[in-house]
Amino acid sequence: MAFPRNSLAGFTLVLALLPLCFSHYLYPQFYHHSCPRVEEIVKSVVAKAVAKEARMAASLIRLHFHDCFVKGCDGSVLLDSSGSIISEKGSNPNRNSARGFDVIDDIKTALEKECPETVSCADILTLAARDSSILAGGPEWEVPLGRRDSRGASLSGSNNNIPAPNNTLPTIITKFKLAGLNLVDLVALSGSHTIGFSRCTSFRQRLYNQSGNGAPDLTLDQSYAAQLRPNCPRSGGDQNLFPLDFVTPAKFDNLYFKNLIAYKGLLSSDQVLFTKSEQTMQLVKLYAHNLELFFQQFAKSMVKMGNISPLTGKRGEIRKNCRRVNTNN
Ligand code: HEM
Ligand SMILES: *[C@@H]1O[C@H](CO)[C@@H](O)[C@H](O)[C@H]1NC(C)=O
Ligand SMILES: *[C@@H]1O[C@H](CO)[C@@H](O)[C@H](O)[C@H]1NC(C)=O
Fold first, then answer.
1. Measured in angstroms, how far is the CA atom of residue 166 from the centroid of ligand 2?
2. Buried-most residue among 122, 187, 212, 233 (CB within 10 A)?
3. What CA–CA distance (Å, rounded) separates 173 from 165?
4. Which GO terms describe its cellular component (predicted)?
5. What is the pLDDT averaged over residues 161-176?
6. Is residue 315 within 8 Å of 151, Cβ to Cβ?
7. What predicted TM-score, i.e. pTM, was given to this entire model?
8. Is 312 a known ligand-binding residue?
């Protein structure tokens, strides 16, 4: 009896380990020999850009998110339109909104000088997001590396997979689930709205006609709403900017969660985390009261988001220019 059971166990173990021999994992030391100064170089370019404009930290974190939610973290968001490629930059979430592409170009240029055709644009985005968190006062973490770049983009993926600010909570939860992220990841990662800005057009609906009955969103503090209206009128001013966290707009802290408890979340997608589910409400309260826990979970969830279906091994390519696929192969 013992023999067949053991051999079955042994066989099962071999079967379970087999994929390890063939698949390629992301790991922090990926460029240890091929580009030992990669982290230093990315950090120095990001630091310069953030010193010039604090908002760039927010923009770079968001760019990584918009990359990962479309075909995985493969640098697809960086491609310009050309040939058969229709750029994701024109999608609803990105148009007049996604920014930081020049900073990614500057990093790529510096890295091509140091170690040509070695570091992927997808890895650059991941490292830049981590460095941005640190520079804004947020947590740090080790970044698994070894992603490769896509040879295509997906405009429809960008339009459909990235949540919209007026999506319902169930829709947002579904979009995160499709990316392999759970409720804890959703609440923690939404915490990056503790920095950066939103345009009027992304939350105007809440100020005037939230449910199509001509009434504002009553889960938005009405004195805060009154402060927002002058620069976000019923029509016009679409591109006017408002801090996502009006208390400490450039500091990566947990004021975002405290604002939600005070019904002063800017986007509907922010406020629903507190008003539409007991589970997410408890997480909002937890992170509002415990900065350390928020930071720990944010770091974990950023690594998890960065691991969404990477291209590894021989799949994809290392782009020479993050805006274009390589043509000579
Ligand atoms: C939960 C669903 C989410 C929705 C509906 C959402 C939506 C938005 C919207 C509408 C804006 C303002 C864009 C504009 O008006 O130009 C924004 C900004 C931002 N988002 Fe999100 N977001 C979500 C999750 C995330 C996640 C997961 C991250 C990163 C981990 C993130 C990071 C940011 C940052 C940092 C900004 C500010 C960007 C800047 O100032 O350039 N967001 N988001
Ligand atoms: C959400 O906003 C979009 C773009 O402004 C709009 O077309 C759509 O009708 C809104 N959806 C809901 C449910 O309000
Ligand atoms: C509110 O939105 C609904 C549906 O989109 C529209 O029919 C109505 O005219 C709007 N009301 C106001 C006061 O803007």
1. 6
2. 122
3. 13
4. extracellular region
5. 98
6. no
7. 0.94
8. no
